[in-house]
Specification:
Proton glutamate symport protein, 434 residues
Amino acid sequence: MKNQNKMSLTKRVLVGMGLGILVGFVIRSLFADVAFVQDYIVNGVFYVGGKVFIATLKMLVVPLIFVSLVCGTSSLKDLSTLGRLGGKTLSFYMLTTAIAITLAILMANLFEPGVGVDLAQATSFSTKDAPSLGDVIINMFPTNPISSMAEGNILQIIIFSILFGIAISVSGPEGERIASLFYDFNKVIMKLVVMLMNIAPYGVFFLMAKLFSDIGLEAIFNLINYFLVLSATLLLHALVTYSLFFKALTGLNPITFFKKMETAITFAFSTASSNATIPVTLETATKRLGVNNKVASFTVPLGATINMDGTAIMQGVATVFIAQAFNIHLSLSDYGAVILTATLASVGTAGVPGVGLIMLAMVLNQVGLPVEGIAMILGVDRLLDMIRTAVNITGDSVITCIVAKSEGEMDIDVFNDPSAGASEESVQLGTTKK
C-alpha cells in the first residue's frame, strides 16, 4: 500500500519542474533587484545545485557508454549483425533528419515568422568553422582511448568500445571471463543511474528556477512568431512524424511509447543536453521499452551524437526566418541545399561544441544569408533548446525501437507492460534482498 501511494519519479520530476518555473518567475518579478536573493539564491543555491545535477549525469555518460557497448558488442555471435545494426541505424537517423528540416521549411514558409521583422541592426555573430568530412572520419578513430574518455569524445568512445567488444567475442574462454566482468559492471552502473535519477526532482527544480529567474518574457514576445512556429514544428515532428514511423515499422502503440518516455523526455527538457540524458534514455529503452542492450547500447549513444532532428528543425525555421527578415528570396534549389547541408552536417559536426550554431552557420553560408542574423534569435534559443533536446532523444528512442524490432531484439511483453521498469526507479539503501 505504501508503494502504491508513492508518487512516481516522472510526477516528482514534473512537480520539481513546475515549482522551479514558478519560483523563477516570482524571483524575477519581485526580487530582481535584491542583491542577497540574486547573489546567494539565484547565482548561489540554484546555480550550484543545477550544475551539480548536470555534472552527476555527465559523470555517468562515458563509463555507461563504454561498459554497455562492450557488453552489447561482445554478445554478438555473428559480427555481420553489427554491420546491419549500423546500416539501419544510420539510414533511419539520416532519413528522419531530412524529413525534420523539410517539415521546418514548409512550416516557416506557410506561417512566415520573419515577415515584418527588422534585422538591419543585427549585432555581429561569429562561430567556429565546421571540420571537413575527411577530418570528421579521421577524428572518429582514437589515438588514445583514455584521452577520448577523459575528453568525452562520444564517437571515439563508440569506435573503441565496438572494437574492444569484438575482440572479447572472438577471444574464447578468456573473452568470456572478461565479458562476465563487464556484465557485472553494467548492472552496477545501471543501479547508479537509478540512484541519481532519484535526486532528479531537486536538480530539475534548481535548473528551472535559475533559468526562469534569468529569462524575461520580453525576449519571447519580441520573437513570438519565430518562437511559436519553431515550437509547433518541433511538437508536430515529435507527435506525428515519430508516431507514424513507430506504428508503421513496429506495429506497436505509439501512445504506449510516449507514456514510457515521459521521464526521459522530462530529463532532456530540463538539462537541454542529449549527452547528459544518455543514462536515462538508455535505462528507459532497456527497462521500460524492452529493447535488448546489444541494440540500445549502440543506437542510443550514436543517436545522441549524430541524430539531431530538433536541431535540424531549428535550422530550417531559422534559415527561412532570417531570409524573410532580411527580405532575401530563396529559390527551390536553395531549399534543397539547406536540406542536404543540414542533413549531412548532423553527422559532420558531431561532437563539436556549440554544434547547433555551427550547423546553422554552415546552412546560412551555403545559401548566402548573413550569419549575423543568428544573433537575433539567441534571446529565446535557450528555452527552445530544451524542446529541441526532448525531440532529439525521442527520435533516438523511436529509431532504437524500430531497429530492435526488426532484429528481433525487443521484448514486446515488457513494452506492453505499463509497470515494466517501475521497480527500477527506486533504490533501497541499507537493505539486503534475500
